[in-house]
């Protein structure tokens, strides 16, 4: 039972890490340095870095203007 739990935790951690790395490469940040900084944080501190990235991501990305309604 402990082995199954450990394997599940490892797999979930790897999935979270890959999702964060993939998201960082696709996201448009306010400047290029932020992109590199987040990549390094998530790469060298996988679990905590990915969690912090997803929590703070909205503060650092370029915001698209809202479309005006046609009414």
Automatic annotation (TrEMBL):
One of its GO terms (cellular component) is plasma membrane. Pfam families: PLDc_N. It is a multi-pass membrane protein. It comes from the Bacteria. The keyword Isomerase does not apply. Residues 11-54 form the Cardiolipin synthase N-terminal domain. It is found in: Cell membrane. Its main location: membrane. Keywords: Cell membrane, Membrane, Transmembrane, Transmembrane helix. The chain crosses the membrane at residues 36-56. This is Cardiolipin synthase N-terminal domain-containing protein.
